[in-house]
Design brief:
Layout lengths: L1 H96 L6 H56 L1
Helix pairs in contact: 1-2
Protein name: Endosome-associated-trafficking regulator 1
Family: Belongs to the ENTR1 family.
Keywords: Coiled coil
Length: 160
Amino acid sequence: LKEENASLRSKINKLQIFSETQADKMRKLEKKLEENKIKEEKEAQDLEAMVQHVEQNLQLMTKRAVKAENSAAKLKQENALLQVQLKNYKMENEALRSGQSASLAVVKQNADLALQNLLTVITNSRSSIKQLVSGAESLQLVADLLKSIDRISEMSEDGQ
């Protein structure tokens, strides 16, 4: 009976040691799990902040693009008016050549004014076109960022 008691006590001691080892492992795993949860929450907050920043940039770039489009439309309208004016000046020039109008100096002055107006429109048009191109490139960058965010979130979901 004493031998059996000693054997059972030995088994109990081994089981207690094993139980303590398992409890230690469990505590370590719980601690690691908590650390991972905190890390994932921080990453999610960082990602959310980045998404908000990208959305703000997208809104700003959209406003710029709309402004540039409005400017381009205005310049097109101005260009059309100047083309009509140029056509009128050409007709007046032809009339002068045929001797039906005022002096050659007035025609030259009108032509110079038309040329100045056309050069101004061209300069403004180039600026607006550059703004539109810049806005389009910025929107492409934002789209690429949003695609990469999707890939990041897909990768983090696959990793879990």
